[in-house]
Amino acid sequence: MAKKKKKKSKEIQNDIMESAHKVWLAGLGAVAMAEQEGGKFFSNLMEQGEKLEGKSKKQVEKAKGTVSGMKTVAESYWETFGRTVDDQMTAVIHRIGVPTKDEIETLTKKVEDLTVAVDNLRTKSAAKPKATAARKPAAKKAKTPKKAPAKKATTANKPTAK
Fold first, then answer.
1. Which residues of 120-138 are buried (b: 16+ CB within 10 A; e: fewer)?
2. What percent of the chain has pLDDT over 70?
3. Distance between CA atoms of residues 41 and 31, nearest Å
4. Are the C-beta atoms of residues 14 and 21 closer than 8 Å to each other?
5. Which end of the chain has fewer CB atoms < 10 Å from its terminal CB, N or C?
């Protein structure tokens, strides 16, 4: 029995050695074939790569077109949504009585015009009493004779200037 085991063990070792030798030879054959067929193989790989590149470029261009179209549609929807929100907000603002920007600008212009008009009237009315006051004493001296000085009025009776 021991001899049978040794014989079987030897056979297995021989089979393993033979298999390893075959693998070694296959490797050497692959190297030799690669040397011989390497140029052809490389050219074949390049051709396959070019074909794949062409297909993928077409797909990329197709995807770009689709994305561009979707972008345009999305922008259109976004603009419509924005206009709708603006319109709704404007309606709410008008309902609660808030003036618009144009209304405020119009009112501001009117206030500025009125301020200028009031300032002009003040300037004109302030200039008239001075001119009239300057003329009256000269006229009084010529028309009326000198009178005795009048009693001084108390400060309580005088109206205060504002």
1. eeeeeeeeeeeeeeeeeee
2. 77
3. 13
4. no
5. C
